[in-house]
Design goal:
By secondary structure, the chain is of the alpha+beta class. It has two domains: about 40 residues; about 50 residues, SH3 type barrels (Roll). It has one helix and five strands, in the order H-E-E-E-E-E. A five-stranded antiparallel sheet has the order 4-3-2-1-5, with no helix packed on it. A hairpin with a 2-residue loop joins strand 3 and strand 4.
Length: about 90
């Protein structure tokens, strides 16, 4: 009985750790994966490096962005930080 009581605080810390760190991280990862899957040609996006562009072509792991007139750059899908709302300039 006393050995169970010794491990009880450690178990409680693990449960708290899960709900504070692991649970929200899993939720954020699923949200990000859904965002990357929902991207489509014509979406305005921002990369993790802070570059803004419009998606002009997509492949499995590569997205081609038009940054300006005549300037197209290829990025990994994972480099897309967020899809911007339609009204964003």
């Amino acid at each position: 009985m006393s050995t169970v009581m010794q491990f009880l605080p450690m178990i409680a810390i693990f449960v708290i750790f899960y709900f504070v760190l692991i649970g929200p991280e899993r939720k954020n990862r699923k949200k990000r994966e859904a965002m990357l899957e929902a991207m489509k040609k014509g979406d305005k996006v921002m990369t993790s490096g802070g570059m803004y562009g419009t998606i002009v072509a997509m492949q499995d792991k590569v997205v081609t962005l038009q940054l300006d007139e005549g300037v197209r750059v290829r990025f990994s899908r994972q480099a897309i930080q967020e899809v911007l709302p339609d009204d964003a300039g």
